[in-house]
Amino acid sequence: xxxxxxxxxxxxxxxxxxxxFAADRLWDKxxxxxxxxxxxxxxxxxxxxxxxxxxxxNKRPVPQGIxxxxxxxxxxxxxxxxxxxxxxxKNDIWQRVEPNFxxxxxxxxxxxxxxxxxxxxxxxxxxxxAGRLILECGDFNGASQPEVSTAVRNGLNTxxxxxxxxxxxxxxxxxxxxSNIIALSGAFSGITNAVRARLWRGIPKDAVCQAGSDGxxxxxxxxxxxxxxxxxxxxFDFVGRVVGATALITxxxxxxGIAATAQIAAGDAGRFQVYATxxxxxxxxxxxxxxxxxxxxxxxRGFDALAADNExxxxxxxxxxxxxxxxxxxFGSPLKDIILPFFYMGSWQDRHCLYGNxxxxxxxxxxxxxxxxxxxxxxxGLQCFNEEFxxxxxxxxxxxxCVYYTKLVNFWWPAWQKxxxxxxxxxxxxxxxxxxxxxxxxYFSWDKAxxxxxxxxxxxxxxxxxxxxxxxxxxxxxxxxxxxxPGLRDLADFFCSLVKMGTNGCYHIENSCLRENxxxxxxxxxxxxxxxxxxxxxxxxxxxxxxxxxxQRWQSHLDKIQPYYQMPDGTYGSALVHKGPPSPAKAxxxxxxxxxxxxxxxxxxxxSFNHFPIDVTDEWNLDLPSAERERAFKSCDKFPGDIxxxxxxxxxxxxxxGYYLPHPWLHYFTLKQDGSFTNRVxxxxxxxxxxxxxxxxxxxxxxxxxxxxxxxxxxxxFDVAFKDMQARGGFLVSSELKDGKVTCVLIxxxxxxxxxxxxxxxxxxxxxxxxxxxxxxxxNADDSYSFATAPGATYRLTPQGLAPVSP
Length: 807
Known about the structure:
The structure is a single chain. The protein is α+β, with helices and mostly antiparallel strands. It has 3 domains: 1-27 and 719-807, Immunoglobulin-like (Sandwich), CATH 2.60.40; 33-96 and 136-339, Beta-galactosidase, Chain A, domain 5 (Distorted Sandwich); 384-566 and 572-606, Glycosyltransferase. It has a 9-stranded antiparallel sheet with strand order 1-6-7-8-9-16-13-12-11, covered by helices on one side. The protein has a 7-stranded antiparallel sheet with strand order 2-3-4-5-10-15-14, with no helix packed on it. Strand 11 (208-213) and strand 12 (217-224) form a beta hairpin. Helix 8 (403-422) packs across helix 10 (458-471) and helix 11 crosses helix 12 (524-544). The longest helix is centred in the middle third of the chain and has 22 residues, at 477-498. It is globular. The two termini are 39 Å apart. 51% of the residues are buried.
């Protein structure tokens, strides 16, 4: 009885159930992702027309084709049964012509259309499709379109066709990007027509294409015009090989294109394989020889071995996806019908793309609006420093979705240094624009305004991702020194040379704009970016124990930068300012509301896109008092749903997609289950609450201020847990919430750093242990706890009795 009383008293004091720190966690009730993936299959009807499977943005082609991408090779399976087609492109196949900067801005609708699509004479760099792999068999003309089953454990696509006595079983596979093999296995019976495996490419105006064969391999070779990156012209070879059946190879013009065709007699089509690949001059000096080598290797290994290789890769992928995973104790439908396809489809892509993960050092480029079959893509089909707000991906452990930015800034760093020098600045800089996959000797963008523009905020878009790779990703000091700090140091010097001292004793950014809206001086997001660059460079230099003199200079500029403009309602914004009385052109502008601190008159006030200090520079965060967080939230009148969860506001609401969007594949598969996730959603069901946390992992773990907050914006009455989410400082955090109380906190350190955690049990003390040994932890005035960490150690936090009185 005495022990029972003591146990009950302990529960009353700590405020947690007896089982709180037992082993029955929510994550113990859910299977491993790989175990579920063993039997899970996507089932989709094969479309008879070309399309690309994925989120429908702008004018994406429909219907949706079966996606066969791998990060380098982009492919879509479609077509009627008698003409099965795989459309193919590769993210290093580009027409890299330099743009024409000497044209006047387009004025007519026709000129604007030509400029948008990069048509001559605008000459924007453009991606080019590789062509099509087509499997023809006339016996299946008019057959019903089959259902395609895709195994997420290896990407194997299987389906059957039938018409009359004719039957066919086909398997399609794209191997991982190190080999880039398109593999087809066919087994036909009861057919009377020959089977043709054809490589086809439309005849472009700006390239020379030829079909060829050596009796064993057959191919299409295309050569694009010479330019500075490939002064002899760029070449790519689309090469095929038929295995398991005798094939007669011919080359000719077919359907307004050039073709190389391998014909298999009906009697030999009982079982055969077709292997194809695309190799470019960016990969090797002899693309055709390399392609033959890859296909010979595929032939010797066989179709099943290629599928087994894919399975090894996907097993590693699903193991990585256990990191940052969210648990509710139930991984049944519809959740698994969203998460498994999301991980499978998102396995290869950069966050700005849907189908590829380009490497600029290999002259690759891609963007989500670059459609596989398009000869001209909007915005040149290139990455733009325009919507890179993906810290949540790092929190969820999906760092590789943002690795492009680290590669990009380091590849272009020397050219961007020259760009700064040519402009009369220090360090290096780059503006919002499109960086084509070209030789990095001179910074180059078809958007001339991007080279002389005023949106200095663009630097913050992508470089935040580079810093996050270190700060969240647990990378070591060598990575910081070699991959992060050089460019960061240059950016800090650049902003020192950009700002100008004003008569009010503050530094100003005199030519700046709020996003794409001209504001004149001290646009809020540009000031926020300058502050973030200086603060982060100081932090990095301090870690590396270097550049003491630069740290002092950066700190001086940080201390004297112009404060954010304050609107009449007390919120923050930006102001279009004008010296002296408004000009006649500004006659319709709003009358001045208040003077600018530097003696200029405000002629227009703007709050659009004031989210920068929240979701890019992390300046407005959970450490602010609630009133300040509310004011920060009200300062943003564009896409408030993008940032409210970062401030702990409206936990039972989700609004999206906003400007920087949830992960597109995650949103895509969620909409297939619940079409309500298009606008503002009230989180009133377990499913909606679960998906809100998957969309916004910082609802569960937010460390943007440098302090780890657990469950800061979790929906009400929701039991949820997470494992190994990444936090600033390189920490891996696991925790559980049951019945409104935190029941488990584990923090693993990957670097030597101080860990700061907001008390998960307000009003109680916190005990920190590592390997059952007590760790000295300091309670701070805000009720957070700080303690030193060592790499590889795991720290367990548990609640104690009443906390000591705050100092």
